[in-house]
Amino acid sequence: MSEAVTQLTESLLQQFKNETFVLLSTVDIETGGPTSTAISWVYAENASTLRVAIDHRSRLVNNMIENPVITVTIFGEEMVYAVNGRASVRQNPLQDVPFNMCCFDISIEAVRNALFYGAQLSSVPQYVKIYDQRAAEKLDEQVFTAMKKA
């Protein structure tokens, strides 16, 4: 993928069927500069919309409300994708979760290969949750269920 497209590829849609993490980049409202944060409460609503849930304690919420232009970096099979789009509040606060969260829809404007020329990923980065596994699974289920209902 050398040219930008305006929708997620089929392989990216498949990747979002399982829990994954992305880097969400926003414009910081205090500094005006870029800021990136890894998030895992993200899924593809369809090929042209990503949905994310963000804890209200995060600066990302106000950043996206103030300036909706964002980039989501996705580590896919063999490639790194930069997804440019605009965030809009889907539900605030997100219902049926144990703490104050905001749910955003990201309208995808462009999907580009962000990996330097001549390279490919040898594996997709993985992470482990270092807190109570049962609590993590329960919270993830609550958040994803609420996001899908939003």
TrEMBL record:
The Pyridoxamine 5'-phosphate oxidase N-terminal domain, residue ranges: 9-91
Database matches in Pfam families: PNPOx_N
Signal peptide: none
UniProt-listed InterPro entries: Pyridox_Oxase_N, Split_barrel_FMN-bd
Coiled coil regions in record: none
Protein name: Pyridoxamine 5'-phosphate oxidase N-terminal domain-containing protein
Species annotation: Paenibacillus xylanivorans
